[in-house]
Amino acid sequence: MAIIKLQTEPIQVNELYQQLKDPKFGGIVTFNGTIREWTGDIQTQKIEYTAYHQMAIKELEKLAAPVEAKGARVIIVHRLGELAVTDEAVFIGVAMPHRKEAFEGCEYIIDHLKETVPIWKKELNKNETRWGGTMNGEDN
Fold first, then answer.
1. pLDDT of amino acid 131
2. H/E/C letters for each residue in the chain?
3. N or C, which terminus of the chain has less Cβ within 10 Å?
4. DSSP-derived pairing of the beta strands 73-79 and 42-51
5. What are the boundaries of each domain within the chain?
6. Residues 6 or more apart in contact with residue 122 via CB below 8 angstroms
7. A Pfam family matched by this chain, by name (predicted)?
8. Which is it for the CA torsion 45, 15, 91, 31, positive or negative?
């Protein structure tokens, strides 16, 4: 069963990575999404994440299920609350017997997470507050 968490505490990347290690897995792929300072000419000061908690967990479980069905170990952790530049916002880890499947599983989860999971981003910049990302659809 996948490890799925929404939390306000900092993400402990190394501890999560250690939970993916197993003699049967030869490929471990992780994605760490951090808060970047600059998006084009917009300077981010901080980001606040909120979620519809129960629904977000259910949607994350749905994303993990097809990857796990292929024999993977999956970990998904997303931060909520106020995050500063360089803080980890999301950790996704997929362990599989082979690297190709691990890469594919990790990419599938992060790509669909942004489309289906009710987690909202409020970005506070020097001159404005924006919800969800830049006007041209670019997101972190």
1. 86
2. CCEEEEECCCCCHHHHHHHHCCCCCCEEEEEEEECCCEECCEEEEEEEEEECHHHHHHHHHHHHHHHHCCCCEEEEEEECEEEECCCEEEEEEEEECCHHHHHHHHHHHHHHHHHHCCEEEEEEECCCEEECCCCCCCCC
3. N
4. unpaired
5. 3-131
6. 47, 48, 49, 50, 129, 130, 131
7. MoaE
8. positive
Class of domain 3-131 (CATH, top level): alpha beta
Mean pLDDT per 10-residue segment, the chain (140 residues): 97 98 98 94 94 97 98 98 98 98 98 95 88 52
Summarised one tens digit per residue, pLDDT across range 103-114 is 999 999 999 998
pTM of the model: 0.92
